[in-house]
Structures are given as structure tokens and as C-alpha cells.
Design goal:
The structure holds three protein chains of three kinds.
Chain A: H1 3-25, H2 29-39, E1 48-55, E2 58-65, E3 68-74, H3 81-89, E4 93-95, H4 98-105, E5 118-127, E6 130-138, H5 149-243, H6 248-284
Helix pairs in contact in A: 1-2, 1-5, 5-6
Chain B: H1 17-30, H2 37-40, H3 46-61, H4 67-81, H5 84-96, H6 107-111, H7 118-132, H8 139-147, H9 152-175, H10 181-187
Helix pairs in contact in B: 1-3, 3-9, 4-5, 4-7, 4-9, 5-10, 7-8, 7-9
Chain C: E1 2-3, H1 7-20, E2 28-29, H2 32-42, E3 47-49, H3 58-67, E4 74-78, H4 83-89, E5 95-100, H5 105-121
Parallel strand pairs in C: 1-2, 1-3, 3-4, 4-5
The chains are: A alpha+beta, B mainly alpha, C alpha/beta.
Protein name (chain A): Signal transduction histidine kinase
GO molecular function, one term (chain A): kinase activity
Keywords (chain A): Kinase, Transferase
Chain lengths: 285, 188, 129
């Protein structure tokens, strides 16, 4: 290994470890962008770097020039021209078609130091529906070189793992929010049901009380009726029992009129009861 | 030259408790099991020692720019100026973090290689110029650093290495300290 | 003293009692209010009291007696067979017996016995037949 290459790796060794630790401290996509902005310049030279993460149709693209950077999330529409090619082919390529480079850079809002003459591009698929398309725009004083490829590869693997974990945490967070929401919905429904049950209980209690009251009233009424009937009836019985101790004359002259009056009283009492029951039934009906 | 007044070497064992605290802080921050001569030669003046150590720590040890770039800048300036103590010490610090660069390794020559990222090359080049020819620094130099990807905070931190290395070189040269034997043992 | 809103009941009792005791003085009332107002004047040795009566019923009558401290003995004679009523009588110390109508010969006999015993113990023995 040449002295200068040894020196290069000596530098990169430290820079990569700094990059890894800065990346591991990032917890949001914007912190990842800041980390890339701060650290990539110590790893290799570039006019512009693109890191386009994708998973199941969801895209996160980082664009980076020495003096600025941005991160955008969205659909496959975010991919630049050359990325669309890489997306399909999966074949690493050094593209030097000036028209394609210009075409690709059209959506870019960042200021490149110089006009790039090459795009070094890889499509690294980490699973069937997830991966990272990385491209380095090289040219002028900032030439990307073969010696930089293994360094870029390490950076890409670190970056992919980080984006994936941030995305997972976000998904977990939103799932948890959904669960929380579902839980509070359930709680609300539960409260409504509890309230209904409580109301129902109150209604039942009220009805029960009403029934009890009616029942008591019914008993009172029937007791009253029994008394009303028993009073003349007991008189009739009294007369009947005493009859034998009296003389025929006494019976004829005194007891019989009493019996007639009392029998009428009984008849009146019965009629009164019947009409009172009738009245109750009519109002209840 | 060690007898030169007032730069008497004050070994750890002979230092006052106050100075010992500062010595301990240098050992802790630099990860060294001994006190560098650069600090020991200031051990008789705790006030200056504290101030100079604070400047060194906040400029070189702390901050967001990679320490290796800073060590390379200090090595490069010290070597070009001819401050042997600093050139040797900071080559050791730079090497201690990885593979030895070899005795005849000249950082500036290798730094010119296209293999080394522009950020390193620009930082060492511009800050070396700022240290050795401060008056010739222009807006273009700052633009170069910005174009290499350094933000305002990083540029300020890089430029601070220029005045740091000048202080380091000056104290090392006028005190006449020799390279620490223990430091040489680390490098061998 | 007979207190019953049914005149026929009073009539029957009067008939039965006068057959049993020749010299017995009987006062009968169909209006309990009037009966109560006459109570101090008559000061009867025994009162036959009906329970179910309009205006002032047997309970009200007993209560008034209790409140004014009148201790005349009372025999309840009612058509009510309610055990509740019977139990309630226990709270009046001057009620010595509770009987339900109809009047039978046996009942009359037992009334007579009670009457004699009570009268005797009270030292106001009426003339025997």
C-alpha cells in the first residue's frame, strides 16, 4: 500500500468512526441530514450526493452539497432521472452522459460548487422491497475515486440501518397512538354502556318500587274489601248462631228483620266492591 | 536550556496541590499517564498554566472538527516553522490514533494528493497559512473553507488552531523543553 | 257499654246480655264520639268495642282513653280476623279480651265467664241471674 493511501485510510478510519457515532446519536431524519452535512465531507469528495431510501413505496431522499442539504419524504416521484434507471437495473454504474446529468439535476435546489461530469450510482437492495439508491455527482476539484467505494459502502450500510430504525420507531409511535386512540374510544363506549346500565338500573328500581307500591296498595284494597264484606257476614252468622237460643216469636219479630237488613248490607257491600274494582280496571286499562 | 529562568520544569511530585489538579486534568483529557514537559515547564505559575491549558483544551481537545485534522494542522505548522518539540509531539498524537505514518512522512506533501478529501486538504492548507502568514489571510481563504463544506462554527474552530499552534510553538521554543521520553516510547 | 256502628250488633248483644243478667244496665252507642263523651258519666264496668267504625274507630277510642287515663276494661268485639289487629291490642293494658264475630253460643258463654271473673276481681259484681 502506498504511503498516501495508508495516510488516506488513516484519516478515513477516524472519520468513519466519527460518522458512525454522530449517526447513532441522530433520532430524527433531520438530525440524520445534519449528520450527513457535517460528516460526509471527511469521507470523500463530491459535488452532490444523493441518498434515496425506499421501503414499500415510501421514499426518503437526502440531497447534499458541501454548502447545504435537504431531506424530503414521499413517493417514487421523488426519484431523479438517473435514480429511476438505477431503481430498475440494480446495476452499479458510472454515468457520464452530460444530458442525463443535467436532466437528473433538474429537480435539485442546491448549489453545486462546479459542474459535475460523472454520476457514480449504486442501487443497494437490503430486502425485496427495501433498499437505498446512492449516487455521487463527481467532477472538477471534487473527484470521487475507486478508493472511496468501500468507504461509501460502509457509510451506506450505516445510513440504511439508521433510517430503517427511525422509520420503525415512527411506525411504532403511530401504532401506539392508534392503539391509544382505540383504547380511549373503547373507554368512551364503555362509559356510555355503564351509563345506560346505571339508567336502566334506576328505571328498574323505580318500576320495582312502583310495583311494590301497587302490590301493597292491592293488598290494602283487598283487605279493605274483605273487612267490608265480613262485617255484615259476621252479623248474619251471629244471627244464625243465636237463632236456636231464642223463641220463635223473638225470631220472627226481631231477628228476621235484622237478618233482612243485614243481608241487604252484605249485598250493598258486594256491589260497592265490584263497582270499585270495575273503576280501577277501567282507569288502569 | 532547562535551567533557563523562569521555565523550570516542575515534576508532578514537586507540584503544589493546585498545580497537581491542573496536571491531573491534562492527563485525563489527553489520555496520558504522565505530564507533558510543555505543561511541566509552566508548573511554577499556576495562573498562566491554568489559562494556557484552558486555551489548549477548548481549542484542540474539545469542539466538533475532527481532532485528527487539528493535530495535522499543528504538526504541519510546527514542522514548517521548525518547532521540533511540537512537530514530534503532535505527529505522535496523530499517529497514536492509528497506523504509524513513518519517520519521513511529510503531511503537507501527502495532503496535496487527490486521494485525501478536499475538506482535509483545504483545512490544513488554509489554517497553516493563517498561522504562518496571518496578515495574508483574505476572504477567499474563508470561501475555500465554506466550499469544502465547513460551516461558520467549524471555520472559527479551525482558525483557532492557528493562534493555538503559535502559542504552543512559542512556549516550547523559548522554554527549550525536549521531547518527553515517555511520548517517544508510545510512538516506538 | 256497647260501642258498635252497627245498630243490629248492639241490638243482638243487648239481647244476649239482658238474657244472661237481669239487672244489668246497658248503654249502647252507634257513634263512638258520643260514647266517649258519655264515658266519664257512665263509668261502665265493661266496654264492648268494635274496631272498624267510621270517623272514630276502635283504635282511636282506645287511644283517647289511654291519653286521658281512663282505665275502664274493654273487650274487643270485631269482625276483623286480622292477627295484626289482635297483636296491636296488647299495647292497651285495659283490653282484657279480643273476640271475633260472629257471636256464637260458645263465644257468649266465654264472654260471660270473662265478664264475671273481671267483675269479681274489680269488686263490682253485678247481680247474678
Amino acid at each position: 500500500m502506498s504511503t498516501v493511501l495508508a495516510f488516506k485510510y488513516r484519516l478515513i478510519y477516524e472519520s468513519l468512526s466519527r460518522f458512525s457515532s454522530a449517526l447513532s446519536r441522530s433520532t430524527t431524519l433531520d438530525q440524520v441530514r445534519q449528520c450527513l452535512q457535517g460528516q460526509i465531507k471527511y469521507l470523500f469528495d463530491y459535488q452532490l450526493v444523493r441518498f434515496s431510501f425506499y421501503q414499500q413505496g415510501y421514499y426518503v431522499t437526502f440531497s447534499l452539497v458541501p454548502t447545504g442539504s435537504n431531506v424530503v419524504c414521499g413517493s417514487a416521484g421523488l426519484l431523479w432521472k438517473h435514480e429511476q434507471i438505477l431503481s430498475e437495473s440494480h446495476v452499479p454504474a458510472i454515468l457520464d452522459d452530460a444530458a442525463l446529468i443535467a436532466d437528473s439535476l433538474q429537480p435539485s435546489q442546491l448549489r453545486l460548487p462546479e459542474k459535475p461530469t460523472q454520476i457514480w450510482g449504486w442501487h443497494v437492495a437490503f430486502s425485496a422491497d427495501s433498499g437505498l439508491i446512492v449516487s455521487v455527482f463527481s467532477g472538477g476539484d471534487r473527484q470521487f475515486q475507486p478508493a472511496d467505494v468501500p468507504i461509501l459502502r460502509i457509510a451506506v450500510e450505516n445510513l440504511y440501518a439508521k433510517i430503517l430504525s427511525i422509520k420503525l420507531i415512527e411506525e411504532l409511535g403511530s401504532k401506539q397512538q392508534e392503539l391509544q386512540l382505540a383504547l380511549s374510544n373503547l373507554q368512551e363506549k364503555n362509559d356510555v354502556i355503564a351509563q345506560l346500565v346505571a339508567t336502566q338500573e334506576a328505571v328498574i328500581q323505580y318500576r320495582t318500587q312502583e310495583l311494590e307500591h301497587k302490590n301493597t296498595r292491592l293488598l290494602e284494597v283487598s283487605r279493605q274489601h274483605a273487612h267490608t264484606i265480613r262485617e255484615p257476614l259476621s252479623r248474619i252468622l251471629s244471627l244464625a248462631y243465636l237463632m236456636e237460643t231464642f223463641s220463635a216469636e223473638e225470631i220472627m219479630e226481631e231477628m228476621m228483620p235484622m237478618l233482612v237488613v243485614t243481608s241487604h248490607d252484605l249485598d250493598k257491600a258486594l256491589q260497592q266492591i265490584i263497582s270499585s274494582i270495575d273503576a280501577d280496571l277501567t282507569t288502569a286499562g | 536550556m532547562q535551567s533557563n529562568y523562569p521555565f523550570t520544569i516542575v515534576p508532578y511530585e514537586e507540584a503544589t496541590p493546585e498545580v497537581k489538579l491542573i496536571y491531573d486534568d491534562t492527563k485525563r483529557a489527553l489520555g496520558l499517564p504522565f505530564v507533558l514537559n510543555w505543561f511541566a515547564c509552566q508548573g511554577s505559575n499556576p495562573l498562566l498554566l491554568q489559562g494556557n491549558w484552558t486555551k489548549l483544551r477548548t481549542t484542540l481537545v474539545e469542539g466538533s472538527v475532527p481532532n485528527l485534522i487539528k493535530q495535522l494542522i499543528i504538526y504541519n505548522v510546527s514542522a514548517q516553522r521548525g518547532c521540533q518539540y511540537c512537530a514530534k509531539a503532535h505527529a505522535v498524537f496523530a499517529n497514536a490514533m492509528g497506523k504509524s505514518l513513518g519517520d519521513n512522512f511529510v503531511v503537507t506533501e501527502n495532503l496535496d494528493s487527490d486521494l485525501i478529501p478536499v475538506s482535509y486538504r483545504t483545512a490544513v492548507k488554509v489554517v497553516t497559512k493563517a498561522a504562518l502568514q496571518s496578515a495574508s489571510v483574505t476572504a477567499t481563504d474563508f470561501e475555500q473553507l465554506a466550499d469544502a463544506g465547513f460551516d461558520q462554527g467549524e471555520i472559527q474552530e479551525l482558525m483557532a488552531q492557528a493562534d493555538l499552534v503559535n502559542m504552543l510553538n512559542t512556549i516550547a521554543d523559548i522554554s527549550g523543553i525536549k521531547i518527553d521520553n515517555a511520548l517517544l516510547e508510545i510512538d516506538s | 257499654m256497647l260501642v258498635d256502628d252497627s245498630a243490629i250488633c248492639n241490638l243482638m248483644m243487648k239481647k244476649v246480655l239482658s238474657r244472661l243478667f237481669d239487672n244489668l244496665k246497658i248503654h249502647d252507642f252507634t257513634d263512638p264520639e258520643v260514647a266517649y263523651s258519655e264515658l266519664p258519666t257512665i263509668n261502665p264496668s265493661l266496654i264492648f268495642l268494635d274496631l272498624n267504625m267510621p270517623e272514630l274507630d276502635g283504635w282511636g277510642f282506645l287511644k283517647q282513653m289511654q291519653e286521658s287515663g281512663q282505665k275502664n276494661r274493654v273487650i274487643i268485639l270485631t269482625s276483623s280476623t286480622s292477627t295484626l289487629d289482635q297483636a296491636r291490642c296488647a299495647s292497651f293494658s285495659n283490653v282484657i279480651a279480643y273476640h271475633t264475630k260472629p257471636l256464637t253460643q260458645a263465644l257468649v258463654n266465654s264472654l260471660m265467664q270473662t265478664f264475671q271473673t273481671e267483675s269479681f276481681s274489680a269488686g263490682r259484681l253485678p247481680a247474678t241471674p
